[in-house]
Write the structure tokens for this entry.
Amino acid sequence: MKLSHLKTSHVVNPLGFAIDKPTFSWIVEDTDDTVQTAAQILVSRDGDFDQLLFDSGKVDGPGIDSLAYRPPISLLPRTRYFWKVRVWGESEYAESDIAWFETAKMDEDWQAAWITPDWEDKQRHPILYRYFDLPAQAVAARAYICGLGLYHFELNGNKVGAEYLTPYCNAYDQWIQYQTFDISDQLRPGSNLVSVMLGNGWYKGRYGANGGATDFYGDRFALICEIHATLENGDEIIVVTDPSWQAQTSPVLESDIFDGETYDARIPKNVSPDKAFGVKQVELGTRRLEARRSLPVYINEYIKPVAVLHTPAGETVLDMGQNMTGWLRFRTSAPAGTHLHFQFGEELQSGNFFRDNLRSAKAEYVYIADGMDAEVEPYFTFYGFRYVKVSGWVGDLSLDDFTGCVVYSQMDTTGEIETSNAKVNQLFKNAMWSQKGNFLDIPTDCPQRDERLGWTGDLQVFSGTACFNMDSAAFLSKFAYDLGKEQAKIGGMVPHIVPMSNLSKGGSAAWGDVATILPWNLYEFYGDIDILDQQFDSMRAWVDYIKRVDDASGGRRLWTEGEHFGDWLALDASDPASRKGGTPPDFIASAFYCYSARLVAKAARVLGKTELVDTYARLSAEVKAAIQREYFTPTGRLAVPTQTGYLLALFMDLTPDEHRERVQNDLIERLKQDNTHLRTGFVGTPYLCRVLSNIGANDLAYKLLLNEDFPSWLYAVNLGATTIWERWNSLNPDGSMRSPRLNSHDPDGSIRSAKMNSLNHYAYGSIVEWMFRDMCGLNPSSGEDTVTGFRSARIAPKPDKSLQWARARYHSAAGLYESGWRFDEAGHLTIEIVIPFNTTATVVLPDTSIDEISINGHPLCDAEQTGDTVAVTLGAGSHRFAYLIREKNEVVS
């Protein structure tokens, strides 16, 4: 038995995070035992556990839950705590390694002040620095620091930590994150130099919607820093930002998230007294300063370019072989004064470098050489790219001189999908790469053009896939926290983007419903009630906002007012110029009104808010009744005969019970009329295959997955996509992308231009959630009173002979689940599953009967037969089912 993945509030050994009430989680693996018979938690002030703060004692049974255990302890600021867990199974026992977490300043007052360079040019990038002396070796030292817009922190000439783009992106007008660094090993007795280089970043650089705005949150560079060092003799030395610091011009001449960076290596980065300027205090206050919630952004992967291309236009272009987010690291010894110019783009057109789809984003890096050997990368920007145009290079260009640095927030990869179809496997990889590329501190729509914004609708549709692919609990909790902050400013309305930056608009159905859907998804996947507790006011405020709009327009319990994005980028709009699709926005809005109210009621039940359960359950029921009156005829015909209309009616349980079968059949007929091709946009696509697989039309779901012509998921794969596209036809069959000057019509009749065309946009990657939940059958049990977080699961694979085999592995919060299936040539089906320690799963087997199934080579007993499906509840372990699948009439041949 082994205990692994010890996390505090979903982070491994968090240093300086916003933790008031810690939550402990861990996973039990490498054991033949199946059930936890007892567990014990110990918390101490020291790693030897001599200063115990809490000992649960040996608690029999499941009383200590590995998903989210909350020790009843009070925390002090700037203090490290240690914890470990002991677990007993039926025959084995294990004690974990020691985990720790360390608090930040909490409510402690700041001794440091915000400082800024004492010069007039607010765009001139500074280095702020100070020398200080330590009379003896420091045995422990921490830096509590925030620089605006972005900061690069060095001690004695060496970078502190491995993070990039600190202090990250959030609603700076509401809260500003500071980070905590352990600098014990970087200080030395005698003189020490602390230096901080500042860039524009999201705070004061060009960022935001519609091309962005500069100086939106602030117009001055600023730094606040406290260094606390404890010496060998127990004395504490505190170094703070104040007017005694100095400033120097940085070699970074320009930096922006959208436009890139210009770096002049002839300007020394090493500080020098003869280049010093003074600093002055700037009145930003410390009220907004809060301990970090952002996960660290690291270079998580490195890739080498695969080719040097010489284009028909005479350009030299590096092909990275993969659309990625991050930057290029390169080696150079170019003569002093040489300008090396790098431009970043996603695609080639007619064999030439192409960037029209980046709109106004320059997305470039300029390096002015000083004649010395150097390894170079930017400090204060990032790019979304596959291709890099290189200009000004001196000598032969060698692939060995370049490395792609893949940058995103640090998260464990938790999900794997593999099938017998190589193109489907590539589709899964594309969704994973789009998640990596757009999970850089905030969940963005795209990483390349003049946008890179936290669009709420994109995340709402992708959040389930995100939680299967990667451990997204802490990452998305931070985004949800920002969402609540922004929402509070505008009366409960959810903004279109989070942070709002310069776009103070919101209130769109499906976009705003991220406020309810995201927290509930996180609760389902991770089983931690804290996310519902953190976000309940936000969830409730969003539904209350909709109800106020409803009441103001007559109180019909329909949402018929406001501006909505509709079924964004769907292919069934009657107006070729519309991007909103053919499903009426009022129907979409009312459907989400009902659904979100239901989720608030469910969250209230989990949190024990009994009165609110009734309030929001009743509201949801009233909206459902109003939808049925408005949109269904007495015979059950839905007045919104679009794919998305049927999908919402079925997935969100809006259909009258007595007419559900008709609506299911009408959806199937709708697909036949559409030649069994999808026509859905951002709203309908996440539900498309999930609904079909659960209404007896599983073959249709697979047909849609495996279609290769436009519109389909594999259309992009066939055209060489390595990420998910924003549009179903971001490229034409010949690989061309419409020019904004042409503004011409798509094959489907809509108007498209390169200005609205990203090749790294994860929304349609939501098909991966169907792959996990339905193709391979992995679902958390999530009724109103059942355990979540995959402590119990419903494993209901829905195989189809259009694939020979498929398998999924999911490292859930409760442990590793596996589910896979395979057909042999005779049509026999083998389903293999793995259920982790101390969990149970109801396994649902399709198209068979109990007496035809073997389990681990023996007849299946103690199961339930319902129609042509068999359900059996099993505990931890590996289980293998085999039977000859019953043939049935295909819905579509």
User: Anything to note?
Assistant: The radius of gyration is 28 Å.
